[in-house]
Amino acid sequence: MNTVAPKVEKIKLVIWDLDETFWHGTLSEEGIRPNEKNIELVKTLSKRGILNSIVSKNNYDQAKQKLEELGIWDYFVFPSIAWSPKGTLIKELITKCQLRDNNVMFLDDNHSNLEEAKYYNPNIHVHLPEFIDEILLHEAFAGKDDMNLSRLNQYKVLEKKFEASRKHDSNIDFLKASNIKVLLITKLENHLDRIHELLDRTNQLNFTKKRLSQDEIQKLITDPNLNCALVKVVDNFGDYGLVGFYAYHRINHQLVHFVFSCRILNLGIPQYLFAKLDFPILKTIPEVAENLDDSTPNWITEIESNIQKPFAPIKQSNSQLIRILYRGTCDFKQTLFYLSNSGINVKQETNYVTNNLPIYQTHTQTLVNQLELSKGLIAEICQSHFIPFLDKAYFESVVFEGNYDCLVYNLQTDYIQQVYRHRQLNYQLPLGTDNEVLTKAEKHPYILQKLKARGLNKINKSTLKQFSEAFIDIGLIAPEVFYENLIKIRQNIPNHIPIIFINSSEVTHPKSLSQNSSLRAKEMNQVLDKFIKESPNSYLLDMRKIISKPSQFSNSIGQFNRESYRMIATAIMEKVGKITHKKINSNISSFTYFKGQIRMSILQAKNFFRKSIWLKIKRFNFIFAIDLLPELANLEISLLINNPLF
């Protein structure tokens, strides 16, 4: 096996295998024991300016969690943890780090992996774990003093930029093609109701989470130190309406309010306005679905007046519109926006916010409780002072009234929400917004800290203790109970009304910390498949066919990029049209969608020519062609977009 020669170039990157190399044991089998010497070695190499990375055949989420527990995850750059051939992973990793294989060493306990690494990277230095003890004394690893980890931090920035470009390139093309326009409205006297609604009801994109009365809003918009504006947005797919509000303190250079409807999630509107206001001070109250940074979106155009809907709405009487009831998570409001602009009457039951408290009530068990619990018990539950994450509207639903043509039920909450059983009365409540178990005393300080950050003081140590004494956590809903709940729901909705159930993608979000999210999704999806196969007038919108790769997710866990929500809306409309035998424009406004597709095709062609043909011309010194490229592309856009046929 190759050894590091005495005169070898300096090693700048060490790539570690995990099982039986970085640690003892196999993570996916018997578990592992940490190797403290290797943990300290990685830290020491980092302080010498030598990078560390990982190429390991393992489950990414599981390995990441273990490395985080060991306090070493952040010392690795561009970790490649996947069930893929190691030779090509190493080659890609070296390219990402912008290094030569001469300056890289790979450690692995398997000879064939070492040979594979050399096949794809001929000059790489490869070793079995026995070599690890020689590293610190070898001249190739002398490095240089970097106690502040400046080189590691530089590569962490490079890592973030690479991930951002990989995740968002195609979505940005879609956003550019969408022709997004923003209008700021500063005359606010006639819009107090809408401002109040935005401040009081929005949550996912409410950065400041300050709830005001209408009298307080009146004082706010007349404060001479504040610049206040409502935000109106349109794009090729429709008019989003008044979807944002901000109050900017000119003297303090601070945002007092910064809030947006989740209808414009992933359009980049908050980031655009944050940049427009010159990146003011903003105290963000967690959690928010989009992070702000120092960038300026270049796909948004601001106009001063006369903002128009980009296409004429479909003209149908209310009696002609197909009536859909959507029940599920609120991130699908983006999808509902597309449906509403395509001639569908959409009503919705989604998670909501009451006094800064997020309420998630779309679980199947909540619907079954509405059927099975007495009105007296429901009233008692809603009035309880120690049951968190519910209010008087928690059990309200029109699902069983049947006043709609089709029910679209997004079951995501069943996949992820904890369920609690009352110790004496045995009823079950799905509660909370994440996987934090409310009955675990050791978790209470963390939960209270999160709630306090949101300005919530009604839930305190005493109420959580009372809740823990009254309820027991039974975990996620069992698949067999999920199946029984689906049967009960179907039996209590008129047979002639179709139900479209939305399952979960089995692709793991890149930022997910859960080891088992993909396994859970597969298990629940199989149960839903079985139910739909056996149940009349029940249909599946299969997210496995729509969300097939991590790049379709947004930065927020469980949410998708804008193009993916459009694809989901198209799939819903096609299925509704087929079920109801009614003609629906499933292209989401064919006029503007086709126009947007042309715009996107031109952008993609322009990028292609820049990267290939024109670069080749440049090599032959026809530099004038590069100078002409923007004019040629703009002429092409003008000819196509302004053509009367479009």
UniProtKB/TrEMBL annotation:
<dbReference type="InterPro" id="IPR023214">
    <property type="entry name" value="HAD_sf"/>
</dbReference>
<protein>
    <submittedName>
        <fullName>HAD-IIIC family phosphatase</fullName>
    </submittedName>
</protein>
<dbReference type="InterPro" id="IPR010037">
    <property type="entry name" value="FkbH_domain"/>
</dbReference>
<dbReference type="InterPro" id="IPR036412">
    <property type="entry name" value="HAD-like_sf"/>
</dbReference>
<dbReference type="InterPro" id="IPR041492">
    <property type="entry name" value="HAD_2"/>
</dbReference>
<dbReference type="InterPro" id="IPR010033">
    <property type="entry name" value="HAD_SF_ppase_IIIC"/>
</dbReference>
<dbReference type="Pfam" id="PF13419">
    <property type="entry name" value="HAD_2"/>
</dbReference>
